Amino acid sequence: MERETYFGRGGWTWYTGSSSWYYKAGIEYILGLKIENGVLRLEPCIPKEWDEYRIRYEYKSSVYNINVKNVSKSDINEVKEFFVNGEKIEEKKIKLIDNGRIYEIEVVL
What is the pTM for the complete model shown? Predict the structure, then answer.
């Protein structure tokens, strides 16, 4: 009878600590979405076979639609161009703003 009391509890690590590491690995280290001190930048580490991917990131009342295009198809994922609403950004990062607007970000590798 005592054995049934703990039945099924071994899976809780997948719902707690492990899942946050999978999220962090996928979003930050593979897709490369980095948010630090209110600044958004991308440092992807994706397979060269990927053509592109998209991320929708919500910052308070603003929405950032991010489209990453893997034009170079290289083993080295270097951000070559960074556009915000069609305007090329040389710094390749942007300050997040809470103004209720939608931002279209295009990143070219």
Answer: 0.83
